[in-house]
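Internal ticket - ligand job 378, PMT:
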Amino acid sequence: MTPSAMQFISPLTFQALSGNPVHTELFDTDDGCMNAGGRAMHGAIAEENAMGHINLARWADALVIAPATANTIAKCSHGLADGLLSTLYLAATCPVYVAPAMNQAMWNKAVTQQNMQKLKAHGVIVIGPEQGDQACGETGFGRMSEPAEICSRLLAEPKEQFLKGLKVLISAGPTREPLDPVRYITNRSSGKMGYALANATLKAGAEVTLVSGPVMLTAPVHADIVRVETAAQMYEAVISRASKHDIYIGAAAVADYSPVVMEQQKIKKQAEQTTLTLQKTRDILAEVAQLDQRPFTVGFAAETHDLEAYAQDKLARKKLDMIAANWVGHEQGGFDSEQNALQVFWANGQKTLAMTDKNHIAEQLISLIAERMETKKA
Ligand code: PMT
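stdout (structure tokens):
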């Protein structure tokens, strides 16, 4: 328990209810070793007096930080070790789960989201937070997931590596189409959806190549990352690799049009109105689907209206195996959000994936892709 946790509930209450000793101090004279029943164990390791935090970290099969406050998340993401909990996090080699809980404004603050991205990049598994009424009287994302939900995520069987042996190519993020040396046309894509898909695909055992537009995210450690800026560069990077991959997922928000001319010098402010002449870019997704040796091809559709009609049209016109459609321009989900909801379509079928964390929805989409690939093969 952290000092803040002890403001809410005393260690004695916690100990009485759980039947286990409660650790509160960094330099605990207790050795911190436990057996499965939670009783202190005294062995050779116990000789390391005052090193309880290291032994606690060695002993655990999993570390769950619940509720994880903005303060604890900030400390862990920056590697601070100024208390028992942050030190335990740093010393732990087991899987770490974090269930954030805080006021919705604190959760939405850019610095908290950056800290969460860092934790995810370090391999931390994030559970929640959920949306709803908060103790402070506000409503929004920040409620800790229900303890039963945390337990079920924790106890879930480790995912079988159902994509082992396969190579998956994923595009992510926006493109930037230069107008002159200092200006460009772009969109609101953060790359979060594509990066979450890369992480979920790696977890499922596949080899991943991630073609990424300019984003502020940490690349998944085990992915082969190809960084590009323009739609033309993304086209080259994807088309030259697609035939060597089993699956292509186009999660990038590729510019549909790019300036016909890139001025070599900064465009000067002169006329009251000006016009840009734009040229259609090449459709990467459609061209991947037309390759002789085409991978299982999955597109995205980002729509502000008529979601299903536009998604079905793209599925058929671009000859895709599957399309994941998401609403954009709404308060929740889509561009630059931590959450997303998807309506997935394929020939004669569809499935709705409800609004949740992008990492979670990415796992669901990857499972669905594996399922559809199997059906197609059969
Ligand atoms: O990056 P985030 O902030 O996490 O946001 C995620 C997202 C909203 C960007 C993502 O979920 C998403 O919807 N990506 C596709 C965005 C898009 O460009 O949609 P579209 O409907 O305009 O394009 C349809 C498909 O064609 C997409 O798979 C796109 O990658 C592809 N395309 C489009 C144009 C082009 N020149 N080449 C393409 O391959």
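Auto-summary: The two ends are 53 Å apart (CA to CA). Residues 167-258+276-377 form a domain with the Rossmann fold fold (CATH 3.40.50.10300).
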